[in-house]
Write a structure and sequence with these properties.
Blueprint (H helix, E strand, L loop, with lengths): L2 E5 L2 E4 L1 H7 L4 E3 L8 E7 L10 H14 L4 H14 L8 H30 L22 H8 L13 E3 L15 E4 L4 E6 L2 E5 L3 E5 L6 H5 L4 E6 L6 H6 L15 H4 E11 L3 H14 L2 E11 L18 E9 L20 E4 L12 H4 L9 E4 L8 E5 L11 E5 L14
Parallel strand pairs: 2-14, 3-7, 5-6, 9-16, 10-11, 10-15, 12-14, 15-16
Antiparallel strand pairs: 1-2, 3-4, 4-17, 6-9, 7-8, 11-13, 12-13
């Protein structure tokens, strides 16, 4: 279970534990052998091994850099120059002022709400104050080429966008390597995770997971499949200066988000959740433009608070640059044609909650919301994640890097006993 503890303020989450839940029994068919290999997998813990706040690490680097300067005078001059560049409060631009006002509004909630949850996390042993120093080995991530492959796939002839979209499933030996991953949904219908070879790379597909690998121009297989979703989660690649400098992934202008076919995918009373960066204009765009355009009623703003393994904020709460939290905007899809439909099974959505967790060092690797959103959606819901980079049990996922964090290099593995024939769910032939 990903929820370590909970109270009226929110939840303390263990993201790694949630990933591991669906991978306790994995199977792999290799080289055409009749007998499969069974094993279990765990997401590598070093990707969640944040021991100290980021700002302390940066300060340490600054000290080392200063010590290497040719003279102390040079360091003094450099410090004075940096101080001059700092703008006073009255010099902040409109966006920065909006962000400051928002921060002052939620600051006390973050402080008060996180205190009890973090203490509970220490008492149960999940958060540990006495931590050993991190090893000197660097954490490596797999070089993902999925987005580039999606761009190449756009050169292929377009399929009939009005035709019913096929769903390809795993067979006894995994996926047929000739199958098309870009124009139809791929599914693992089994109760067992499968390791498969896709585009000459090994990936782990969780049980009962489905995905479509494509960009925003080729989403019609999702629509044509006919499914309507009770929960839709979006993690858009927001534009910002850091992304442009690092060239880590392609961003998407806010205006293009309106092209997403959310109304065509949403069931009546669908719960829509959008991750938003700490730029005031992005939050304002979601609440005042995007959700109204999709006929989604804004109901709540939750906060994801990022902490170290000892329970410290990863950035100082009042840092003028980076904050230790991100915003989630939650709303209900309420089309004018479905005004008579109201959910009678889901609980009322709280206006404010905290989700506290140790973040991944991998960029844009968000915690799962499955456990915390369960009370607010219908039983046995259909769930969809847009701009996903990983898969979840019982979810459909879409994006141009949708299986990025399912690559086998992110996991450790150990052998597991072969299940009895009666307990293994058969794979569709």
């Amino acid at each position: 279970m990903s929820v370590v503890c909970a109270d009226s303020y929110g939840w303390l989450l263990d993201s790694c534990a949630h990933i591991d839940e669906g991978l306790q029994r994995c199977v792999s068919h290799r080289d055409g052998l009749e007998k499969p290999t069974y094993f279990k997998c765990c997401f590598k813990r070093e990707y969640f091994n944040i021991l100290k706040p980021h700002v302390q690490i940066q300060q340490h680097r600054d000290i080392l850099n200063t010590a290497n300067h040719s003279s102390a005078e040079h360091a003094k001059t450099d410090l004075q120059t940096r101080k001059k560049r700092k703008r006073k409060q009255r010099d902040l631009n409109t966006g920065e002022l909006d962000a400051h006002i928002y921060h002052e509004k939620i600051r006390s909630v973050v402080l008060e709400g996180s205190r009890a949850l973090l203490e509970a996390g220490r008492q149960c042993g999940y958060l540990i104050d006495d931590l050993t120093a991190p090893s000197s080995t660097s954490v490596l991530s797999h070089e993902c080429r999925l987005a580039a492959l999606c761009d190449m796939a756009k050169l292929l002839p377009l399929t009939d966008e009005s035709a019913e979209a096929p769903v390809q499933t795993l067979n006894r030996d995994g996926l047929d390597p000739s199958l098309d991953l870009f124009s139809c949904i791929t599914e693992n219908p089994s109760d067992c995770a499968y390791e498969v070879m896709l585009m000459k790379e090994k990936y782990l597909l969780p049980p009962r997971s489905r995905f479509l690998l494509s960009d925003i121009t080729r989403m019609h297989p999702l629509i044509n499949n006919g499914d309507k979703y009770d929960l839709i989660v979006l993690d858009p690649p927001w534009e910002n200066k850091s992304v442009k400098r690092s060239n880590r992934y392609s961003s998407l202008p806010s205006s293009q988000l309106k092209q997403l076919p959310v109304p065509a995918l949403a069931a009546p009373e669908c719960l829509l959740v959008t991750w938003v960066t700490n730029r005031a204009k992005h939050l304002r765009f979601v609440k005042e433009e995007l959700y109204p355009y999709w006929e989604v009623e804004v109901l709540a703003e939750w906060l994801w608070v990022k902490v170290t393994r000892s329970g410290e904020f990863v950035f100082p709460l009042d840092s003028p640059h980076k904050k230790p939290y991100e915003v989630l905007v939650l709303g209900r899809y309420r089309s004018a044609t479905d005004q008579s439909v109201r959910s009678s099974t889901a609980e009322g959505l709280p206006e404010q909650r905290l989700l506290i967790s140790v973040p991944s060092v991998l960029h844009s690797h968000k915690p799962s919301l499955s456990a915390v959103l369960k009370p607010y959606i219908s039983p046995k819901p259909k769930c969809l994640e847009l701009f996903a980079r990983s898969l979840q049990c019982d979810w459909t996922s879409w994006g141009n890097e949708v299986i990025k964090f399912q690559h086998s290099s992110y996991f450790t593995r150990e052998r597991a006993e072969e299940p009895s024939k009666t307990s293994e769910t058969p794979i569709t032939q």
